[in-house]
Specification:
This protein is mainly α and 125 residues long. The chain is 71% helix and 0% strand. The termini are far apart.
Length: 125
């Protein structure tokens, strides 16, 4: 909107002064930057990742974690971890479960601690 409203020959003046237009411009840039930062980040697995013991070991660890999760975690903690694994942000999890983001982070932290205690730090990472 600002770019449409201000003529090209006045941009230098707008950006050099402390004006309402400059503040609006900076706010728009900040909003776009934050929106970009908040989007889910997807990264492909790298083929060079160190394999700690083959597929059977991974399946074994996953089975250990699933068993421990079913024994020591609440349903809410399991759901929070599952959504986190699926790539949802803390805010998205909070919205879906009608909780505060702070509560989601706290529950996630507690769940990870429980799993580490149950199966050992190496398997829970």
């Amino acid at each position: 909107r600002l770019m449409q409203r201000i003529p090209v020959n006045q941009w230098e003046k707008v950006l050099s002064q402390d004006s309402d237009e400059r503040r609006e411009f900076v706010r728009a840039i900040d909003a776009a930057k934050k929106r970009c930062q908040r989007t889910r980040k997807w990264a492909p697995l790298n083929e060079d990742v160190y394999d700690r013991g083959g597929r059977s070991d991974i399946a074994e660890r996953r089975e250990q974690l699933n068993k421990a999760a079913s024994e020591v975690l609440s349903d809410r903690q399991k759901r929070i971890l599952q959504m986190s694994i699926e790539g949802y942000s803390v805010q998205e999890v909070a919205d879906a479960l009608t909780m505060s983001p702070e509560r989601v982070s706290d529950e996630k932290y507690k769940a990870i601690r429980k799993l580490r205690r149950e199966v050992g730090a190496e398997a829970a990472v």
